[in-house]
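Annex B.
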Amino acid sequence: MLPTRKRDCAYLIFFATHIPVIFLIDTVPLLPPFMVTSLSHTLRDFYITTYRDKFFSEPPTWFTAFIWMELLYHVPLSLWAVWGLMRDHPLVPVQLLIFGVQAFVTSLTCLVEVWNWPDRSVAEKQQITSLYGPYVALGMYFPLRAVPGGLAFVM
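Efficient mitochondria targeting-associated protein 19: predicted structure tokens.
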């Protein structure tokens, strides 16, 4: 059953679309070859060419650790969140809180690094920020569901 609350419907859409992105683009370097499709290569090549995101062309070790977090934490959590949101499971707020904090910290770390890349223009940095920034915003917003009345920052 689909949730009737607009916010939970938005969360459901986010998690349902997050799963294919993880497998088609983000975790490609970690996946065994039989799981990597030509579509994955095409999408990653397009992304790297379009956005010049060094995390995907020259990933630092810490970013590879973030990709592992996506594979080992985001995938199971996203699958569970789709199930949990459709059933209004009582643990959804707690899981969103944990996911939100993790997404906020990792995405903000990436943005701090992006804005220190000396070989990228301001316009290129802004373009990458438009991709990572929503995860920072979601990371701040998700915890609001964990506290009754959405007063996470007041308490």
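Residues 6-150 form one domain. The chain is about 70% helix and 0% strand. Further annotation is deferred to the next reporting cycle.
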